[in-house]
Description:
The chain has helices at 3-16, 24-51, 54-82, 95-124, 131-164, 178-183, 192-221, 225-253, 260-273, 306-312, 331-337; strands spanning 278-288, 291-300, 321-328. It is mainly α. The chain folds into two domains: 3-253, Alpha-lytic protease prodomain-like, CATH 1.20.1510; 260-337, Alpha-Beta Plaits, CATH 3.30.70.1350. The chain has a three-stranded mixed beta sheet. Helix 10 (306-312) links the parallel strand 2 and strand 3 (321-328). 38% of the residues are buried.
Amino acid sequence: MSDSTGSDRLAQLRHAHDHGAAASSHEARTRWVVALTFAMMVAELVVGYATNSLALTADGWHMATHAGALGMAAFAYWFARKQSGSSAFSFGTGKVHALAGYTSAVVLALIALLMVVESLRRFLHPESIAFSEALPVAVVGLAVNLVSVRLLHAGDHHHEAHDDHPEHDHHDHGHDDHDDEHAHGHHHGHDHNLRAAYFHVLADALTSVLAILALLGGRTFGWTFLDAAMGIVGGLVIAKWSYGLCRQAARQLLDVVPSESLAQRIRDRIESTFAGASVVDLHLWDIGPGARACIVSVAVPSPLAPSAYRDALVPIASLQHVTVEVHPLSAGDARRGS
């Protein structure tokens, strides 16, 4: 083998084990959404104080909490990108996204709780609302939120499409696990950081819609109680989103097996491909958006090189990092095992 060929092979191996997050598109989209949210927050606070509208002022501070959470999502993308080549992270920085998503889910839960508490307080102590001043700004806020939702929703679809057709790393090709992922209610390529940002702007859009309905009902029919009622409805819906996001991000952070049926297919593939082989230990976990790692311990009478067992897994699973331990199995051991 020539020096150039050897260098090319080393470069390929290094690329195959580069666990950095290639999420520049998501980072750019998130930054745009942060800018839009921050601008809308300033507008609501300025108009709210100028018109003495409590509804607008409260929503402005509500937007401030989302701007902070979205800013954290943008920071997570920046940090993951900057540290993607650092050897300090054993499996790369992919879980930074899950950590940011989990934290954002907790923030969403707190926002939902505050919305419900404030709504209950307004039921007990109704306050006057400046309907004419608040309604136009609420409509503008909804438009901004819809643009933000569109930006992040498009980014999530692009990410899933990219994960379904990986272009690099010959260990990253199978698609047999997709049906199982949908059966479990999530896709292995989900970027929890992006999903958290998406839920934040979706929550803003929901509260804007509910606020518009409450303001219209209050201005037209004098139903001031709608403001508090819509706050409770919105808080409960946001709490449900928060729970789902928190649960999924926590599974990745705790290295929960992402797919039991995929783990079984890995076992079946090894044991059916190699005569007498037995999978004695298997670890399968997510290391980031669209990236999984696997450690397989194989006991076999006639051991082959670990690369043979890794190659056998190529058709059935999207695995970025595979470690194979091979243990020789004597004839006596094989008879006792059978």
